[in-house]
Amino acid sequence: MKTILFDLDGTLLPMDIEQFTSDYCKQLSMFFADIIDGKSLINHVLTATAAVLQNQEERKNEAVFIEHLAQLVPGDITLYLERFAAFYDSAFLNLQEKLPPNPFIADTIRLLKEKNYRLVVATNPIFPLKANLHRIRWAGLDAQDFAYISSFENNCYCKPSSAYFREVLTTINETPENCLMVGNDVQEDLAARKLGIKTYLLEDHLIHRGGEFTTDYRGSYADFYQFAAALPPVSLG
């Protein structure tokens, strides 16, 4: 193993995903209040996002989202896209207040970098890259520590589709047997096992929608730090 893939929300960045989603929707509604009713906007955004999650064509998630949103909102889609771009550099930042980092994460990432592991942010690519970069920073991390960060501009598929994990591995030129997927979502992150990627389930902010599951490893943030400490260094030769 020499490459470790990390989920972002609830993994690198501790959070209650339901609370985060609620707070996100409130901020988004207020930011667009002068051009569209908040409830209508959220319904349209969720519908367009659902289309992205279900897409199995080789099309960028951003293009799928825009295509569906344009069919739903009144007026020129360009106005909405400009407003979204401004949102992620302003009101979106208000969400950080309720998302304190976990010190074990920064320590673990530092340790893995010292051991020469290649690190990847394998977040579900339904947010633009700038939103992902903000959340990485909120976690107390440096985006430059990661060889690749998935985003809706750069990816065509979403978890739990095997196509998503295959796309990431192809992009970073890596094989499943050399990877570990670390995440807190049973259905989305453990789906990496279908490609032969080993998994570590972080349980501090566990998301499990029911049913039996299998993972190679599991534990808390503290447990994962100890797991990383026990890993051998990666030879660069």
TrEMBL record:
The keyword Hydrolase applies. Keywords: Hydrolase. Coiled coil: none annotated. Gene3D superfamilies: HAD superfamily/HAD-like. InterPro entries: HAD-like_sf (IPR036412), HAD_sf (IPR023214), S-2-haloacid_dehalogenase (IPR051540). One of its GO terms (molecular function) is hydrolase activity. The keyword Methyltransferase does not apply. It comes from the Bacteria. This is FMN phosphatase YigB (HAD superfamily).
